[in-house]
Amino acid sequence: MSTTDPSAPRVAVIGGGQLARMMAQPAIALGVPLRLLAEAEGVSADQVIADSRVGDYRDLDDLRAVTEGCAVVTFDHEHVPTEHLRALAADGVVAHPGPEALVHAQDKIVMREAMSRLGAPQPRWAVVTDTADVEAFGLPCVLKVSRGGYDGKGVWVVREIADAAEPLAVAERTGVRLLAEELVDFTRELSALVARAPSGQAAAYPVVATLQVDGVCREVVAPAPDLDPALAASAQELALRIAGELGVTGILAVELFEAPDPDGEGGTRVLVNELAMRPHNTGHWTQDGAVTSQFENHLRAALDLPLGSPEPRARWTVMVNILGGEDEAVGRLYDGYPHALARDPRLRVHLYGKALRPGRKVGHVNVYGDDLDDCLERARHAAAWFRGDLGNESE
Questions:
Q1: How far, in Å, CA of 190 to CA of 181, rounded?
Q2: Dihedral in degrees, nearest 10, Cα atoms 132, 120, 153, 222
Q3: Pairing between strand 250-260 and 268-276?
Q4: At 173, phi and psi to the nearest 5?
Q5: I need a surface site. Which of 115, 171, 198, 378 has the fewest CB within 10 A?
Q6: In whole angstroms, what is the distance from residue 95 CA to residue 45 CA?
Q7: What tens-digit pLDDT sequence spans the chain (395 residues)?
């Protein structure tokens, strides 16, 4: 016999990764039932969401089956075909974010075109189809597939024209368009995370600094240290404007480059790098470091409930990803608990239920406090210990 409040709306979640897994905890607290479309049995979210079924997000029939009887559908990833989302909308299925917004996170060229229309600061860019186009754009540059890339995949730095051969071949083989962007000489990467509800209510989290290695997020510091307050406010306002203009509902992460201002007066500016319309790795710190986590605010927004406060709970919060080490034979993640928790009773650990593979995100740690250096040391030590480096935080 179900004890679920019969008045509580059911939310369908497409994709069984760790983002869907981490939606489960606030859903339990809110008393909101989730229904999951997982890509396989035993994936991260399938382990914790009871109403789970296996299916293919590229199959419209599977999407229709999982959303039947649900008040709203939302996403663990952005890869559901746009035409399927429009078909669901025609059936009366409410999606947050909707297809007209989500396409800007699915297609990098569509996103760049939208940023140009909005007058948002961004790198110089162009669509390219052959080596002549790449040469005309200018080297060095970055080439990106317009759809399907993530965590550094589908992105190439082209310093000489021979480097363009692989991305051009990939584009021709897969039929995706290819985007050229200037290679920005940035000082660091930032992320401005906002939540927006269908009613138009919005909340902006502090702008954070991120450390990316080979296209994969390693660390996040909230708030970004030494960020000019006026530039931080400008970045938040930019993210809120993008969310409003594109009609985003749920979490929007605006990944930014902080780069020297071309006026030559020593200031800095921000440029839009990419958009994500779902809970985002750069917002994992909010689970323990903010009054309301990004996962709860994503669900609140999907249901058009009043949003929770994005205010930080402590002066600093540091998130460090736990990645699979090069030696797959090193222990089990659970074996990291005795040392890590004894060394730091205030440490917060989030594991994803994933098998260890080199470079794979299998969890993260959050540390908060008043001393940034102390938070960095504690978080790095714990993550290194879990990945099998025996606490060697020098790497």
A1: 18
A2: 150
A3: antiparallel
A4: -70, -40
A5: 198
A6: 20
A7: 355 677 899 999 999 999 999 999 999 999 999 999 999 999 999 999 999 999 999 999 999 999 999 999 999 999 999 999 999 999 999 999 999 999 999 999 999 999 999 999 999 999 999 999 999 999 999 999 998 766 557 899 999 999 999 999 999 999 999 999 999 999 999 999 999 999 999 999 999 999 998 888 999 999 999 999 999 999 999 999 999 999 999 999 999 999 998 876 768 999 999 999 999 999 999 999 999 999 999 999 999 999 999 999 999 999 999 998 766 544 578 889 999 999 999 999 999 999 888 889 999 999 999 999 999 999 999 999 998 875 444 44
pTM for this entry: 0.94
CB 285 within 8 A of CB 348: no
Q: Let me know: does 20 contact 4? Beta carbons within 8 Å.
A: no
Q: What is the 3-state secondary structure (H, E, C) of the chain?
A: CCCCCCCCCCEEEECCCHHHHHHHHHHHHHCCCEEEEECCCCCCHHHCCCCEEECCCCCHHHHHHHHCCCCEEEECCCCCCHHHHHHHHHCCCCECCCHHHHHHHHCHHHHHHHHHHHCCCCCCEEEECCHHHHHHHCCCEEEEECCCCCCCCCEEEECCHHHHHHHHHHHHHHCCCEEEEECCCCCEEEEEEEEECCCCCEEECCCEEEEEECCEEEEEEECCCCCCHHHHHHHHHHHHHHHHHHCCCEEEEEEEEEEECCCCCCCEEEEEEEEECCCCHHHCCHHHHECCCHHHHHHHHHCCCCCCCCCECCCEEEEEEEECCCCCCCCCHHHHHHHHHHHCCCCEEEECCCCCCCCCEEEEEEEEECCHHHHHHHHHHHHHHHCCCCCCCCC
